[in-house]
Task: structure prediction
Amino acid sequence: MKIYEYQAKKLFSTYGIPVERHILCYTLEDVRQAYIQLDTEAVVIKAQVLTGGRGKAGGIKLVKNETELLTQASSILQMKIKNIPVNKVLISEAVQIVSEYYLSFTIDRNNKSVVLIFSSEGGMDIEEVAHNTPERIQRFCIDPTIGIPLFLANRVAFLLFNNIEQVRQGADIIQKLYTLFIESDASLTEINPLVLTHEGRLLAIDAKITFDDNALFRHPAIQLLHEPTEEEKKEVYAKSQGFNYIHLGGEVGCMVNGAGLAMATLDMIKLYGGNPANFLDIGGSSNPRKVVEAMKLLLSDGRVKVILINIFGGITRCDDIASGLLQAFEQLQTSLPVVIRLAGTNEKEARNLLRNSSFYITETMNEATQMAVRLSL
Ligand code: GDP
Ligand code: MN
Result:
């Protein structure tokens, strides 16, 4: 699970890692108020999105006065970064940067240990540094039985800083970042950049934390930090209704019984040049209520152009499923074409039942997927 920079900075503060003064804003009015509250001339506007490379995408702007702030904040609040709409920004007190460092803890699976990664060339170009001059990025494996006692933190800090005051601050930050990593079951705690300011202070001006999903049950407070996307909300809702739904983004809405058949259906849609809108396994029942709920999910996806229903009747008989579908569609209003393929027990009876409906009735999976793809183009 990823969290926003503003959330990560809050955790940093709890652990005593110094960050610059900042205020989270959702609207231009919030931004205006934040500027008054920060009571400083130069501030940095920072788009809050769960993706890296914001600086390069134009999502980070240093501004010197209120007019500039409002113009830039308004444009950042309307932008998309890697297709994610920005709906909140952080307004931070601008700091005068002398140099930028990189510092992170993550898991090194080859060494089966936590690794500290650090560099004196932090900042937006860290990927290029790693690619072109990998020797400028150093790694230090952590023995879990000793962690990072002060002598080790100092050893690393001496490699980064040549002033004793900064070594002290740096070692302290390294220890705290490690404690946060371990105590929160993180898979990444990263500061890029950690900056040395004009006044000789070290500050984390960016903060990134990823948590191990499998350990989240141990951290109810961290779970609360998760802000689900619209698609995730649908997935959670689907689960509560007893089926598995995963949004995929294409045009062919699929309703299938059984996960294996659902996967095969997605493959065939792709094979015929279409794009599935979703994975949806409604399980083994013809219950019309369930069909209605599942269909509502599909119909709420604006990109869906056709519905493909692919059902294999085993213990659940096809004619039961057919009557279930007829009942369900009586309640649903949709002008979308619906392609149905029913195979298995009593399939002929099922097709007879559906004969006078507006559905496109097919016999094979080939026929059904081809037709659905054609209708989706
Ligand atoms: P990222 O691109 O998403 O990693 O965003 P960061 O928060 O790391 O910011 C990108 C870059 O913006 C930093 O590496 C700094 O060079 C610059 N920056 C961020 N905050 C400040 C600030 O307060 N003052 C100055 N001068 N530069 C800043
Ligand atoms: Mn950064």
User: Anything to note?
Assistant: Residues 44, 46, 52-55, 60, 62, 92, 94-95, 97, 100, 123-124, 192-193, 205-206 surround guanosine-5'-diphosphate (ligand 1) (CB under 6 Å). The two ends are 36 Å apart (CA to CA). The mean pLDDT is 94. The first helix runs from residue 5 to 14.
